[in-house]
Amino acid sequence: MSSSHPAVVLDLSANGVGIIHALSRKGIDVYAFDTEGPYSKGKSRLALCGICPSPLNQEAELLSFLKGIAMDLDKKPVLYAGADDYVVFISKYRNELSQYYLFLYPDHSLIMDLLDKKKTYELAMKYNIPTAKTFFVENEEQLDEAITQLEFPCILKPVFGHEFRKHVNKKAIHIQDAIQLKKNYPIYREFGDLIIQEIIPGDNQCFYKVAAFFGEDMELLALFTLQKNHQFPSQFGTGAHIVSKRIPDLVDVGVPLLKELTLKGVGMIEYKKDPRDGQYKLIEINPRFWLSHSLTGHSGVDFAHQYYLYLTGQRPSPKLQQISGVHWIYLVRYFLTYLEKRKNGEMSLKDFFYGLKGKKVFALLAFDDPMPFIRSTMSHLRNTWKRKRRSD
């Protein structure tokens, strides 16, 4: 198989590093960029890395930057995005960028709907997809009305998560009672629109994902399902310890939805299985590579490489059968989750070490590329120490 086309990756978080590792180890030249900030140090040695303009407030500069990168290369590069901001940018300027890069996205309107929690909820209602009870509040009167119908505790979630996390690094805010809700809602509302949602019961292992890669004509080229074991923060966070697991019921639920939405390219749906009724309830849909996608390559599917082969015209055979039981571990987050759960009596040291057994892939730990792991570990530990000092 040919690897003559280079790849350009926008994102140097663990998501982007996973793409770098998947491609560079197959002999593909990779160029990776991110904005100046937490990822400007500890760059991957498996790619030519650098700083790029921001997709949020330097659109013209980023467009010019990407054109310049592509013009210096012999062949059209495959363009990857590991974060929502870059996805929106690429989609918005797809007509211009497609002259220089190879990529595949669904319609721009669908991307924007999927990044909008309110629109995603409306899609769930349209297609009769079970989801958490949700309230949209725009004023104090609506907030009071929602309180009469809510069961506490509940959660506040940003409508546009990628925008909200620029100000508040949380996926959701846990609300214990009506008093806390009335106090906290106006505080967090300053950073963007919010929804109020019931908490679906169940621990981290009730979270599942189904991911698919559809070609231009919606032919299914890759399929993968997984289950969370742990996330960080443990209550409302992102994956820390994941296991590959074929879940036929989830495939039957998720794949038709992605096809109905015409979500070409890479898409992922997260569900939480409600122990009260056994239903998979929609959490979110992402039109991009997700944090733990590097698990797919070690489970026989390899989304990043399949995407590359398709876009470079190499007609890859569909990869629809995965190896189950492979673990993906974001080591520093797994350790911090252990410390958090140990306090609550939910996890022992024995449990922690047991989770390191068996076939596994680490999110960042790699002997041929040590700096992203060192950077991430130091950053997580430093931020945890700062939070602890503020709370003391």
Automatic annotation (TrEMBL):
Q: What's a Gene Ontology MF term here?
A: ATP binding
- The answer to whether UniProt assigns keyword DNA-binding to this entry is no
Is ATP-binding tagged as a keyword?
yes
Q: Name the source's superkingdom.
A: Bacteria
Which residue intervals define the domain ATP-grasp in the entry?
A: 121-312
Organism, by scientific name, is Halobacillus alkaliphilus
Q: Under what name is this protein listed?
A: Predicted ATP-dependent carboligase, ATP-grasp superfamily
Keyword line: ATP-binding, Ligase, Nucleotide-binding
Q: Which residues form the signal peptide?
A: none
Under SUPFAM superfamilies, the record lists: Glutathione synthetase ATP-binding domain-like
